[in-house]
Amino acid sequence: MAVRTPLYYVSGNLREMDGTMITAIRNVAIYEYSRNPSVTLSVSGSGGNLTSINDTRLQAGASLTNVSAFPSEATTAEPNIVAVSYQRILKTAATVTATVDTGKTFPLYYNSSGNLQHMNATDFIDTFITPAITTLTSGSTTTAQGGTYLVSTSTSVAGATLVSATPIFVDTRADTSLYSAAGIPEDLDQPQTITNYYLHQIIGAEITLVNFPLYADSNNNIKEYSQAEIASILSDYMRREAATSVLGNSIDYNFDGTGTARGSSIANTILVGGAGNYQTFQAGADDYRAQEFPDGSPSTAATYVFKINKV
């Protein structure tokens, strides 16, 4: 790794940038990425490529009938578990060709001999891109993470845009209020929605530089990059590194791997502790019915954490 200290022009002199100035350039890199991220997530009803996560709930056991007496509890089927798999997030990584290093593409710095030298591509990545992507993939959800994603139970999150009104996960439980003895045979699966979870993309914040790095043109004249020029190079390398880095800067999202949690944890809740609500109903002189309905108390069966990671 080679983190360099770029030069800037002030009062007729070439000086090394301080940490604040370098951070400002990294923040421009973050903003440029937020405008055109190369790793994007979309939401659909199915067909995602992030790991599937499961919602489970109880449903009633099958009903029984008898012509002379109620079927006993020992003979009726117990409530059982219904599992619904959610795999609604599709991750796409763009193919990005970054600005070619001509030898004078990147900012100038003083080398160990005190001479002016242009950064190479690796220097540029180490100085600006890697730290910017490290900030992007942190657990914070401010404008400094613009272009990346979080999960929320709300459809409206300050500083972020809802990716889709389709939830990425729906936590359900059996709605015990819908089952009644008079309704036997009841529909087995009668769920209620407990919580919806939605995907949001964080909005970035525009950064205007005060001090600009320097480069030497084809005639070896020293010039300042314009905001647009340095922003374009930063954007190219942010997008390429985030999508297909060989230096450990690729941005990844997952539910089952390493990384940093982003937004709300996803809870799969289910009724537990019940023995089955055994009910009977005589529908006629020779029509005796019995069925066991879901019962118990809500409990979290599993927790899924949406994570961002730099790999």
Low-confidence stretches: none
Average pLDDT, to the nearest integer? 97
Distance between the termini: 16 Å
- The structural class is alpha+beta
Number of separate helices? 3
Beta content: 35-45%
Shape: rod-shaped
The overall strand count is 22
Sheet bearing the most strands, described? 4 strands, antiparallel
Rg for CA atoms: 29 Å
**Helix fraction?**
10-25%
When the domains are counted, the total is 1
Considering the chains and any ligands shown, give keywords for the structure.
22 strands; alpha+beta; 311 residues; four-stranded antiparallel sheet; three-stranded antiparallel sheet; 3 helices
Written overview of the protein:
By secondary structure, the protein is α+β, with helices and mostly antiparallel strands. The chain has one domain (7-310). It is 16% helix and 37% strand. It is built from 3 helices and 22 strands. The protein has helices at 19-35, 121-136, 227-244, and strands at 7-10, 13-16, 39-43, 53-59, 64-66, 80-86, 89-93, 108-110, 116-118, 149-152, 160-162, 169-174, 191-202, 214-216, 222-224, 251-254, 260-261, 266-273, 277-284, 287-293, 296-304, 307-310. Strands 10, 11, 12 and 13 form a 4-stranded antiparallel sheet that branches. α1 (19-35) crosses α2, α1 packs across α3 (227-244) and α2 packs across α3 (227-244). The longest helix is centred in the last third of the chain and has 18 residues, at 227-244. It is rod-shaped and about 105 Å long. 36% of the residues are buried. The mean pLDDT is 97.
